[in-house]
Amino acid sequence: MFRNYLKIAWRNLWKTKLLTAVNILGLSVAFAAAILLVMTAYREFSYDRFHTNKQLYMLYINTYHAQGLEQRANMPMPLTPAMKQEFPEVKAATRMLYTSGMLRYHDKVFETDLEGVDVDFLHMFSFPLIKGNTQAPLASLDNIVLSAKKAQSIFGNEEPVGKQLEARIGDNWKSFVVSAVMKDAPDNSSVEFDALCRFENAGSYESQKDAWSSSTHSVYVQLANHATEAAFERRAKTFVNKYFAERLRDLKRDGATPGENGELIGLHLRKLTDLHLNGIGSESQSKFYPYLLLLVGAFILFIACINFMNLTIAGAFTRSREIGMRKILGAFRLQLITQMWGEAVLVCGLALLIGLAAAYLLLPGYNSLFNSKLTFGLLQQPLLLGIAALIFFLVTLMAGGYPAWVIARINTIKVLKGSMQAGRSGKVRNVLMVTQFVISSLLICCTLIAWQQLNYLRKQPLGFNREQVISLPLPHDVNPEQALKRMRNKLAGEANVLSVSGTDINLGRGRDGSSATSRVSYDYKGHVISSNWLRVDYDYVKTLDLTLVAGRDFSPQYGADSMALVINEKMAQQLGGVKAALGALLPVSDSAHPMQVIGIVKDFNFHSLQEKIEPLSMFISPGSPVQYIFVKVPRGNLPASMALVTKRWNEAYPGNQTDPSFLDENTDRQYRKEKRFSSIFISAAVLAIVISCMGLFAISVLVMTQRTREIGVRKVLGASVTSIVTLLSKDFVKLVLLSVIIASPIAWYLMEQWLQNYAYRIHINIGIFIGAAVIAVLVAVITVSVQSIRAALMNPVKSIRTE
């Protein structure tokens, strides 16, 4: 019996080759897209879930200033030892601080992310040690633990354990002994490093080990099995009152307003497994991102299922006599449903196999487009296999089960008399088509808004020259001050170089991938001043074309400028305005003497446009080395200017590569999330439109077939081809327009919520929805018109004879 069902199913599918091809192609595309999107979402959710200890948290501080809430994950150095003494809930804790970017072995230098940690680190996290001292690898201050990949790159086939190497910490090289090698951290780990040493090796440790006013590093906590976050945070109130008493006093004096729980400073925990999607600061991924991927995948599958349902129901009337005869001969409704559903399972099975093959072939391009690291090995995960089986079952149930139930309920007598009408199924078809195009229109609207916002961010004036300035990141193994001086000399007198300067923090995100920020706080005239802190060099204002509104720039002619500041207008507002700020002496905590404000520049966006402009203080100090050289070049031949700067660098440091870029490239890289967001919507909208139009085309074929005789009669009575095409197309256009009308307010609400995250944003206007309507209608008209024109051009004699 099963064999007969399979034969009948295959014959029926082959008989309706067009409908079968549309269904298989649409479902294949949908399955391929859904597979890739579900894999991506699964990987996003999998971050940090490989650790054995489940009570792992990151510490962060909420501070309520008079201006609003500040949330940060940087902690004072003495906090962790004090917390371990006073919190019985804390089973283990570790500080983590970037300590060095360079390791040296036998005169060869290797770029390395060396992190300073406490001894609890390797007991808390599941980073297995594979050789060496696996019990106490960081027992001594001169111990260093390497990842397997870094050990291989440094030592090759040599045994690394016991070998001595050096790390550059500040301006000095310090010797370490390799005590152990650990397995490489998975790529879905939020905690990243190449090597580990003791926290006490950090260059700032001695000067800040007892300083509660300076926050430099992150802290991770492992709670005892019985402990809870709520218990920790209750005890944290007493802890904050004890150790942050002076800071609390300053906040009250400055008029700070407590938060909802009545605290001015709150010490809180963030679950490690939540960090990737809900971290502290702008670097974490949006927590809605994986849900968006799943939603888009569900939308695309749903559209393909609607196609399947519509085409199956619409094509049922070509099989009505077959179904009627089978009922007369004793077929039960369940048997008919099983037969129809079996055909759906066969189509879906073929589509799934094609979709898997397509996903495999598209995976490299997909990884490149969305900056992912997916492998097909993910599909071997039991959870993903279960999800895939469930999705396949639901698709067949929805796409095949409902049409099978509708077809099995066809009235046998009406079928055999030839009096069966398609009215009700037409209504169902129209509802499904409207639903399909609502989703497509929604995605088109979201695409247009996301693209418009990204374009706005790219073109928004930032207040500095980003088109003509080259950013040159300095390798770790060169002396930064010497490199800046050498490049100044090399580029002096070059017609293609207008000025040279340096800084410790890049603008935007360079090709080296780094992005950083630095802040200082201090008391001034009875209130706390907080400012971003930027090390610059001579000609920084000139190089970036910043506008001086008062005072002057740094100059080598003034020896005291090493104790001077150039600030922005936002900073001047904190000091009482431009007049009051110019010449003010500021008691910066890291300075032995007050620093004088010698100049004030117009505000510029030194951070992403997601953030408002904040107070900024710029200083010159040989004690804080520059990390980047900025070179301003003429507007003429920019590639030639880049080639010149690269050539001069290679002359100054042969064999020591760097990766320069223009600042406009760097600022574009700040918006990787927006680009990915926009790319998702564009890809989804294209797929949704393509799949919807495939269904629309096939439906139009069936409708034109049913109206063949009517078209012939109209032509005989004098109807023109244009009037017939208009008549046949207008019903579809009405449905598409209705879809856009329904989708527009939904898109407006969703994207308005998304735009709230930006300090600088577009305002959604009606033109976007008109544009979406034009796109949707145009695509629908083109799709339907192909078949409408063909039907209108048929010989009316043949059309009238058609049964």
UniProtKB/TrEMBL annotation:
Compartments where found: Cell membrane
Keyword Signal assigned: no
Domain of life the protein comes from: Bacteria
Chief localization: membrane
Cellular compartments per GO CC: plasma membrane
Record keywords: Cell membrane, Membrane, Transmembrane, Transmembrane helix
Domain ABC3 transporter permease C-terminal: start-end pairs: 295-411, 683-796
InterPro entries: ABC3_permease_C, MacB_PCD, Macrolide_Exporter_MacB
Pfam families: FtsX (PF02687), MacB_PCD (PF12704)
UniProt domain MacB-like periplasmic core: residue ranges: 20-237
Thylakoid listed as a keyword: no
GO molecular function: transmembrane transporter activity
Transmembrane feature ranges: 21-42, 288-319, 340-363, 383-410, 431-451, 680-705, 732-750, 762-786
Membrane topology listed for this record: Multi-pass membrane protein
Entry protein name: ABC-type antimicrobial peptide transport system, permease component
Source organism (scientific name): Chitinophaga rupis
